[in-house]
Design goal:
The complex is a heterodimer of chains A (746) and B (123). With 746 residues, chain A is α+β, with helices and mostly antiparallel strands. Chain A is built from 26 helices and 22 strands. In chain A, helix 3 packs antiparallel against helix 4 and helix 4 (84-104) packs across helix 5. The relative contact order of chain A is 0.05. Chain B is an alpha/beta fold. Chain B is built from 5 helices and 5 strands; from the N terminus they run E-H-E-H-E-H-E-H-E-H. Chain B has a 5-stranded parallel sheet, sandwiched between helices. In chain B, helix 3 (61-69) links the parallel strand 3 and strand 4 (79-84). In chain B, helix 2 (35-42) packs parallel to helix 3 (61-69). The interface between A and B is large, with 52 and 50 residues.
Chain lengths: 746, 123
């Protein structure tokens, strides 16, 4: 990849992180407007985006970021107070910044007016130190629709000034004097053509040395430009007793014969113009037509630069101790909160291209296959005769496992990056629905495979939106129901064995089952006469095309429903569970695998073929006896196990294999967990063993196969299919009739 | 001749670009992600030049320069600040802290190398 392209990719990657950071910090600001570190962090994020964008010439992004940055600069300097309205504006600006990054990335396009309104609001804030039109803020801040000029005018008229510190710190004035613009040095009239002789007088101030500038280097640079004669000016050296080790007394008169221009000569002194007396003239003689760089008759600059604590001074100059940075108090504040920001800043990291890690994961996968192949080959040897070989194989297995764990941990990513977006979603939904909701997050540091985390964002967003839009009641309704006005949504993540559980829990009204039933009948999902248990009614929200929202709100109704969420989660190899208690709230749980690349599988055999079932779905295996097997009227076979009835599915029938076990009492039953929580028994011929397998997706090549999620290569080199337990279990779902039989049987 | 350069910037993009340019010119580059990291790294080996950003978390560039300059052994170490064109004020703050010179962002690679040469000639 050409380096520029590579830098761009780095930049976009960084932008994502910075935008996330910006989002997070702005959300914190809402609750803690006094958090200076937060302001600093947000400012830095915008600043970094601007800086990078500048390097690649993304002008539109630069100019927007510039205004955004300026507004934050005022907040940061305490010239403007953080208000809810400003936080709102920042959130909107963050969205636009994100859009413009996407535009720069060429993954999106926005018309020219896209950022116009927010930009003019930001500029208004910067210029007037206040948001436009306080009374109008409620509407423009929420609905982006009011972009017409009329509004702008109104906004302009109405603005209310907020406390702004106008007076500048004294140092600034001094600085202003101290650092005269460079242009003053050069008299352009003097610009001479090739081969002129210049006369330069150069006398460093002490400050020049303090900044580690070195006259030897400067003069050396001049020397390379042409013919140079140098004469030291020792006239300022005082009497011995008055000599200050920190002061600079030495000057030089230089005559330079060169083809370089006056600009080029001046450029040599670029960094020291304010730290010296400098006269450059293009004249053959030294006297009359010299131009002064600074007011040299005024010795003040020298005085000013003089350090006060001479004992600290090295021979050539002293470190400056008398000038605190103009924003001294602010710096102290930064230090106080340094620990906090340190916590949030990332530890020593290296960036590795995900592709490289994927390659590594793949290689580890191949290694897992090779290792199991070796074990299988060795299994027919005598353990006594090949003790060393077996020992080695055992170690190989252990190390492979260790390597795999390490590689997987590289890919692991805390769910925080997804959870971090949720406060924003909650806020937006609250504004749109007028509800009050508090979001609690738990287990943010729980780690998941990077690819899972990435794909979790949409489903989770949808779930959180749903929880607020459909779950949480309006403040009035909540009061009436004896609940606190503010609803609660809890977002949590935790490890459970080989799985990660992610839960969205709300304390709202729960699923309105009657509404669901009516809706499902309307949509033709169920029959009018269907008798469904409350839990089954709840599950209907996962039915394709189902949506209970009376109108398509701009919140939940984004064209996707819970069915899409479920599909996504299943694609990730996960399951989704829903529990709802009327009046008390709902709980949606995602059960996700730790990794997408390798799974612990049980190798099952049906009709001489091997299949792999993820061990995480297996509860137990049983060898049933004939008396425990029952048939429902609709032909579903049930297995009675410890007093419970479990529906059975014949793998051979599901996969369309002619041979294979057709009588559960002759085979084995693997009890599996399903989305709904009720176990299902899958009838197979035999169990071959247990093995780690590398998941090879079939979706791109073959598409969706019923009951099959992917394929793998076994130790013996044969290809085996990996079973999709959820899909298989679905075939076993008993009909309502059966349900009755089931219940009466129990 | 190769010089050893410490770059201090919280932006990965900027660090990468600096490293690419400097290493491309044969210099040796050590990267730090903020002022504190810079202070930790500056004493690990002798450096010919330090290039630092101003706006950084944990410890900003101004504090960093102050801290470096406060140590006698670094009194003559050239420190360059990376500034955006518009921030004259920042440049002055950097100079007050003891910065030797400045590089304007977005930087031109040739100009960057010239500036390095300017504060720390290789011959």
């Amino acid at each position: 990849m050409d380096p520029l392209e590579q830098f761009k990719q780095t930049f976009f990657g960084e932008c994502e992180e910075l935008l996330e950071e910006l989002q997070e910090q702005t959300s914190i600001l809402k609750d803690e407007p006094q958090d200076t570190e937060c302001l600093h962090a947000a400012f830095r994020a915008i600043h970094s985006i601007k800086g990078g964008a500048g390097a690649f010439g993304f002008d539109r992004l630069v100019s927007f970021a510039h205004s955004f940055e300026n507004a934050f600069d005022l907040l940061r300097d305490g010239k403007l107070e953080v208000s809810d309205e400003l936080v709102d504006l920042s959130l909107r600006a963050t969205d636009i910044l994100e859009d413009l990054v996407a535009e720069a990335k060429e993954t999106a396009q926005f018309d020219e007016g896209h950022e116009h309104q927010v930009l003019s609001m930001l500029n208004h804030v910067v210029e007037h130190g206040a948001l436009p039109g306080e009374s109008d803020i409620a509407s423009p801040a929420i609905s982006p629709a009011n972009t017409d000029d009329e509004d702008d005018d109104e906004l302009g008229l109405d603005f209310t000034p907020v406390a702004v510190k106008i007076e500048e710190p004294e140092e600034d004035d001094e600085l202003g004097l101290d650092f005269t613009p460079v242009a003053a040095v050069i008299d352009l009239e003097d610009k001479t053509a090739d081969g002129a002789t210049y006369s330069i007088t150069f006398k460093p101030h002490a400050s020049l040395y303090q900044r580690a500038n070195d006259p030897r280097i400067l003069i050396g640079e001049l020397r390379r430009m042409g013919n140079l004669t140098l004469e030291a000016d020792t006239s300022s050296i005082p009497a011995f007793a008055e000599l200050s080790p920190a002061e600079s007394y030495l000057g030089w008169t230089i005559s330079l014969e060169t083809e370089c221009t006056l600009e080029e000569i001046t450029e040599v002194f670029e960094f020291v113009l304010d730290d010296c007396e400098l006269l450059i003239s293009a004249a053959p003689t030294k006297s009359e037509n010299h131009k002064k760089s600074q007011d040299t008759s005024d010795p003040e600059p020298v005085q000013k630069a003089e350090p006060q604590e001479a004992e600290q001074a090295p021979k050539e100059g002293a470190p400056k101790t008398d000038t605190p940075p103009p924003n001294g108090p602010k710096e102290t504040k930064t230090k106080e909160t340094a620990a906090k920001s340190e916590k949030s800043s990332k530890a020593a990291l290296i960036r590795v291209n995900l592709e490289k890690i994927d390659r590594l994961v793949n290689m580890v996968g191949e290694l897992v296959i090779t290792q199991s192949m070796l074990s299988q080959e060795a299994s027919c040897l005598s353990e006594d005769q090949h003790a060393g070989l077996f020992k080695g194989l055992e170690q190989l297995q252990r190390h492979t496992r260790g390597l795999q764990d390490s590689v997987m941990s590289i890919r692991a990513h805390p769910v925080k990056s997804v959870f971090g977006r949720m406060p924003r979603i909650v806020r937006d939904v609250c504004i749109a629905t007028g509800k009050k909701v508090r979001l609690e997050t738990k287990g943010e540091s729980t780690e998941l495979d990077n690819s899972v985390v990435e794909q979790l964002s949409d489903p989770l967003t949808h779930m959180v939106r749903n929880a607020i839009d459909h779950g949480i009641e309006s403040p009035e309704d909540r009061s009436a129901a004896g609940k606190s006005e503010e609803g609660l949504v809890i977002l949590s993540a935790e490890h459970q064995g080989e799985n990660i559980l992610i839960q969205v829990k709300d304390d709202g009204k729960g699923i309105d089952r009657e509404k669901v039933r009516i809706r499902a009948i309307e949509k033709g999902v169920i029959d009018e006469n269907s008798q469904l248990s409350p839990e089954e009614l709840d599950q209907l929200v996962f039915a394709p095309g189902f949506s209970t929202a009376e109108s398509i709100t701009n919140v939940s109704g984004r064209g996707v429903g819970m069915d899409v969420v479920r599909q996504r989660i299943q694609d990730l190899g996960g399951r989704i569970r829903l529990k709802s208690t009327p009046g008390q709230g709902s709980e949606v749980t995602l059960v996700l695998p730790l990794t997408l690349a390798i799974l612990d599988g049980m190798i099952l055999r049906v009709a001489g073929e091997d299949y792999v079932m993820p061990i995480t779905s297996i509860v137990e295996t049983v060898r049933p006896v004939a008396k425990d097997l029952h048939n429902t009227p609709s032909g579903v076979e049930l297995l009675r196990i410890r007093g419970n009835y479990v529906p059975l599915v014949y793998l051979s029938r599901e996969l369309g294999v002619k041979e294979g076990c057709n009588d559960a009492s002759q085979g084995l039953v693997v009890l599996c967990e399903t989305n709904e929580g009720d176990p299902v028994g899958i009838v197979i011929d035999d169990i071959v063993g247990q093995q780690q397998v590398v998941i090879k997706s079939l979706r791109e090549t073959i598409g969706n196969l019923h009951g099959i999620s992917a394929a793998t290569v076994l130790g013996n080199g044969k290809v085996a299919l990996i079973l999709n337990v959820t899909e298989l279990a679905a075939s076993a779902a008993p009909t309502p009739e059966d349900e009755i039989t089931l219940e009466s049987a129990a | 001749m190769s010089q050893s350069i410490l770059t201090v910037d919280d932006s990965r993009t900027m660090r990468d670009m600096l490293a690419h340019t400097l290493e491309g010119a044969g210099h040796q580059v050590i990267q730090a992600v903020d002022g504190k990291d810079g202070l930790d790294k500056i004493c690990t080996q002798p450096f010919d030049v330090v290039i630092t950003d101003i706006n950084m978390p944990v410890m900003n560039g101004i504090e960093f320069i102050h801290e470096v300059r406060a140590q006698r052994e670094y009194a003559t170490l050239p420190i360059l600040i990376l500034t955006t064109e518009s921030s004259e004020e920042k440049k002055n703050e950097g100079r007050q802290a003891g910065a030797t010179g400045w590089i304007v962002k977005p930087f031109d690679p040739d100009k960057l190398l010239r500036v390095i040469e300017k504060v720390s000639p290789s011959t």
